[in-house]
Specification:
By secondary structure, this protein is mostly helical. Helix content is 74%, strand content 0%. It has one domain. It comes from Neolewinella xylanilytica.
């Protein structure tokens, strides 16, 4: 399988690795300190399994903290590492280019859409695992945090929630996990397929939401292949944005937040949809691999 990431200069993998490690460690420490200080100033508990925040002001402050955390933990470190390594060509190196295989955009979108039932089936099986108490507590805390973020009572709250949950994560996380890790750092050490899966594993594990590890892993793989097939990071960014954005809008319309740990779809329905999803994804995926290899 040919490398479909944009060719950029002669920067070494060691150089990029060093820049990535330094930027991630530095920015994570700085961001953690800043977010902790702001949380104390606002009087908001970032670790809580209690009721969602009651006032609009508190929820807006929480969204600001999460936005800063996402940018400072993923987006800015990835940007800095790419800038230090590739200079003015950082955006090309990240994959923010026109699709090298525009004819593959439709296939990438179809694989992602048809892959969602398979993701749902993976979520069901993930929930059947008997997780340790500390993982259960971590999941409850994460759900409580998300319940506050997605408690939306006005259009202005909806706009900020979309920015916090959909827009910023789509750019920051895709820049880090697909653009930097999959497309550059891991691709210099292993095959393209291995880079997709390793980046997706890191992407899922780093969220520390263990009841959703496997579905998030599959989402990362689907996003990774969309980047591989099209050669443009814009495709996974847009898919990520739409996926998260739809969840925000659905929650707003429903008027209540339902955590991923609460699934009420019958298993037979999930299994049938998941099997059909797997068949379609494998067929479209293999066809996409052949097309990109031939092109």
């Amino acid at each position: 399988m040919p490398d479909t990431t944009p060719p950029i200069g002669t920067a070494s993998g060691i150089q990029l690795l060093l820049h990535t490690v330094l930027c991630v460690i530095g920015m994570v420490l700085l961001t953690s300190f800043g977010v902790t200080m702001l949380a104390k100033h606002f009087g908001i508990a970032l670790v809580s399994a209690g009721e969602p925040l009651a006032t609009v002001g508190e929820r807006m402050q929480l969204r600001l903290l999460l936005l800063i955390n996402n940018l400072g933990t993923w987006g800015i470190p990835a940007l800095l590492a790419l800038l230090l390594t590739y200079g003015r060509r950082w955006s090309d190196a990240a994959g923010f280019v026109r699709p090298r295989h525009p004819g593959m955009i439709g296939n990438a979108i179809l694989v992602f859409l048809f892959g969602i039932p398979l993701v749902a089936l993976a979520a069901y099986f993930n929930l059947q695992l008997d997780l340790p108490d500390w993982m259960v507590r971590s999941e409850a805390e994460g759900n409580a945090l998300l319940a506050s973020v997605l408690r939306i009572e006005s259009i202005s709250e909806l706009a900020v929630a979309l920015l916090t949950v959909a827009v910023v994560p789509a750019f920051a996380e895709e820049l880090m996990f697909r653009g930097l890790l999959q497309g550059r750092l891991l691709r210099s050490m292993m095959s393209g397929t291995a880079a997709i899966w390793v980046a997706a594993i890191i992407f899922s594990a780093i969220h520390l939401e263990f009841a959703g590890f496997f579905p998030r892993l599959l989402l990362g793989v689907l996003l990774g292949y969309s980047y591989r097939w099209t050669g443009s990071l814009w495709v996974p960014v847009i898919l990520h944005l739409l996926f998260n954005g739809l969840q925000v809008i659905t929650t707003y319309q429903a008027g209540t937040f339902v955590p991923d740990t609460e699934m009420d779809t019958p298993f037979a329905t999930l299994a049938l949809a998941g099997i059909l999803s797997l068949v379609v994804v494998l067929y479209l995926g293999m066809r996409s691999e052949r097309k990109v290899s031939a092109g």
